[in-house]
Amino acid sequence: MGIVLGIESSCDETAAALVTTDRTVVAQRIASQDAEHAPYGGVVPEIAARAHAERLAPMIEAVLADGGIAPRNLDAIAATAGPGLIGGVMVGLVSAKALAMASEVPLIAINHLEGHALSPRLADPTLEFPYALLLVSGGHCQILLVEGVGRYRRLATTIDDALGEAFDKTAKILGLGFPGGPAVERLAVTGDPRAVSLPRPLLGSAEPHFSFAGLKSAVLRAKEGGNHTDADIAASFQQAALDCVIDRLKKALAGIGHVPALVVAGGVAANQAIRSALESFAAERGMRFVAPPPALCTDNAAMIAWAGCERLGQSDALDFVARPRWPLDPEAESVRGAGYKA
Ligand code: KG4
Ligand code: ZN
Which of 163, 221, 256, 332 could pair with 136 as two cysteines, CB 3.0-4.6 Å apart? Predict the structure, then answer.
């Protein structure tokens, strides 16, 4: 059995965790920076990098102490090396390199998106490759065919905003504060999802890609119109987003053969309405549905440590450079729209 230290610092969560190859999360700590970024209504990269720099070293020490393990007894140190806000990624990667060098333990550079993509296998030992993955977070919105560790086929991506971003922007328009996803979900429960007529961008289009920019603008118009309650707007937004997700998934899966499981990961996978819609969608198609517990969906270090477990035996050079962009499927063509993301 191996044990891996995972480090995550690519956005606004500073996190460290110890995970074993038999799927035990031995110790984990996470510090959110919500309070620091809230006054600005979004993540400020410079503030994030400083906060990671202040918190990460003591957090790593604490996690090692919690697990009762000396660094030299680790089998590997796995750190997010991209994609993400580069200042924060560098803080985590440099710390991992220093510890790896001092303790003579292999460094494994992890793609943050791979952390999300493999996290369902940490939670569910019976989940085998291949599986279809809806990866929905604040920065990413993709449908992938996960064929193995390091083997990802991107079936769809967003041509503008990510789904989490659409939730965050809707929250901002409705004055719900930051981070917005959970707040929109809470308010949506009390509203009528059919009350406000909102667009479903790209619904029915031939390519399975996503677009959420138009939906966000429609939410703004609905709010400014003053004819609807915030709860009705939140519920209608969530329903429109959900309809898009299901339609795009249908299209993406139609292009490949039968896949036994549908998996959701990334911060938005914490959303209960989305989880239940996906569950019914999978059931209709005779697919298993797997969703990690919400704490494993939003950014965390256990998923990074687990990706390290999956890659145990690999060793990256200590001059591995942090990557602001790092697509899971380098062969997928770019679909450029306004605000295109890798
Ligand atoms: O994976 P994550 O923690 O960070 C990124 O890698 O982006 O995802 C954060 C995103 C944010 O946009 C947040 O609003 C969204 O996930 N999110 C949710 C919920 N919880 C988090 N969106 C909708 N409903 C939720 N319950
Ligand atoms: Zn993430």
Answer: 163
